[in-house]
User: Which sequence fits this backbone?
């Protein structure tokens, strides 16, 4: 991971410099916006990580492997799809947790299902979505994506 | 002003104090939790800031308005492709996409492209993919993307088929009230 990070920062710095060379004003605005987004996300990001570290200390790896590992099968994939559907948190905030879970024995299949439902199925946002699309269309979209997420998880499980 | 900061960072502050006290009294559970947290935090802070600076730059350089014109019912494959590309330069959660979808709909984007956009919006955003690669690896990210995109395009076609002949409208709830 470490050499990659150094490369990322070097590449980032070069891109910023090139952008600055072509348009100072745009670059200033862009960097400012980026810092603003980061600042806005910092506290939810850190809060989730605090919760995640408690969960990871309390829940033993054997349990993670049993319920979310490769052998958890139908149960694991359904559980992760349901949890992903009802929680409302930006996906990239859960990536740190996902990576820790993987290290402790969760399967790629389960993680992919969880992330996809988190992204595409929103039980909490269903009332809002209904206001845009109508109740029936919103329901159809969510149900379709719920099953698509399970399919994606299964396929990832086959590949990885 | 003070209250706002307390609300935003209060939980973090309590956790830091908890961590320090745990170290001081050798409270194993607290020490373990703060070590796990510290590892995650270092990992995060070492690459997330630069990702968002690049996201901000991207936002400043990409002319979003131009995309909207080419996503109509007659746009064919080009429109679909544009829906995918357009979605990659967005940011934010799925519910943030509904107002954008409304604007696309108003400008005449097809049902198919709207749902393709929605699917790709949530899972192909460049900043998100960068972070996903950082945490879960390139192999996983590529595999997930390669499987997801065709499926979401299929969902776009399915929704299009399902809504054909039905009186489908996208409404703006903020306008209706």
Assistant:
């Amino acid at each position: 991971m470490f050499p990659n990070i150094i490369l990322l920062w070097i590449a980032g710095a070069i891109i910023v410099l090139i952008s600055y060379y072509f348009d100072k004003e745009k670059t200033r605005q862009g960097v400012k916006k980026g810092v603003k987004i980061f600042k806005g996300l910092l506290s939810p990001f850190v809060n989730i990580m605090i919760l995640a570290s408690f969960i990871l200390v309390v829940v033993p790896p054997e349990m993670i492997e049993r319920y979310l590992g490769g052998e958890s099968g139908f149960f694991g994939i359904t559980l992760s799809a349901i949890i992903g559907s009802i929680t409302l948190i930006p996906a990239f905030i859960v990536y740190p947790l996902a990576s820790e879970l993987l290290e402790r024995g969760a399967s790629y299949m389960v993680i992919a299902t969880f992330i996809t439902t988190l992204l595409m199925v929103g039980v909490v946002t269903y009332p809002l979505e209904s206001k845009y699309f109508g109740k029936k269309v919103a329901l159809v979209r969510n149900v379709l994506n719920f099953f698509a997420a399970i399919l994606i998880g299964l396929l990832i499980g086959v590949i990885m | 002003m003070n209250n706002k900061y307390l609300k935003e960072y209060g939980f973090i502050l309590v956790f830091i104090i908890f961590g320090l006290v745990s170290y001081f009294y050798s409270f194993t559970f607290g020490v373990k939790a703060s070590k796990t947290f510290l590892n995650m935090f270092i990992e995060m802070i070492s690459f997330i800031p630069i990702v968002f600076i690049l996201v901000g730059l991207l936002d400043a350089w990409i002319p979003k308005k131009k995309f909207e014109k080419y996503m109509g019912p007659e746009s064919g494959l080009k429109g679909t492709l544009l829906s995918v590309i357009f979605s990659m330069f967005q940011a934010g959660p799925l519910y943030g996409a509904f107002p954008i979808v409304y604007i696309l709909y108003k400008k005449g984007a097809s049902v198919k492209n709207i749902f393709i956009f929605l699917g790709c919006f949530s899972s192909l955003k460049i900043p998100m993919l960068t972070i996903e690669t950082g945490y879960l690896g390139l192999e996983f990210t590529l595999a997930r993307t390669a499987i997801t995109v065709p499926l979401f395009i299929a969902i776009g076609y399915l929704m299009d088929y399902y809504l054909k002949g039905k009186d489908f409208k996208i409404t703006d709830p903020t306008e209706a009230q």
Q: What stands out?
A: The helical segments of chain A are 2-22, 24-58, 61-68, 73-86, 91-103, 108-120, 126-133, 135-159.
